[in-house]
Amino acid sequence: MNLEIITPDKRVFSGEAIAVTFPGTEGQFQVLNSHAPLVSTLGRGDVVVDTGAVKQVYIIDGGVVEVLNNKVLVLAEAVL
Fold first, then answer.
1. Rounded distance between C-alpha atoms, residue 56 and residue 62, angstroms
2. How many CB atoms lie within 10 A of CB 78?
3. What 3-state class would DSSP assign to 51?
4. CB atoms within 10 A of CB 73
């Protein structure tokens, strides 16, 4: 799936991922390839991006995520 993590200042990540774990405001959740459409608010915590080769961790300070047609867009308040 294609993943983009964006803050008001810059694009933090843009590329392919096989799994992404998010700090939802109601609890942690994971998105995999071909996930159902989803919009969720995010709390402060770790966004774990699994590209297959490596796992990268970004600490965000809240935001929203949209999942649609194998594209994941994260609009983060800030990356700490």
1. 18
2. 14
3. coil
4. 15
**CB–CB of 63/74 below 8 Å?**
yes
To which residue do tokens 């933090």 refer? 12
The token pair that represents 65 in the structure block? 């995520």
pLDDT at 3: 97
pLDDT in tens, 13-48: 999 999 999 999 999 999 999 999 999 999 999 999
d(CA 28, CA 54) in angstroms, rounded, equals 20
Nearest by Cα to 19 from 70, 79, 63: 70
pLDDT computed for residue 2 by the predictor? 97
How is residue 18 written in tokens? Answer: 């096989």
Identify the three-state secondary structure at position 3: strand
Q: Residue 71 has which token pair?
A: 């594209």
Q: Which residues pair with 19 in a beta bridge?
A: 32, 50
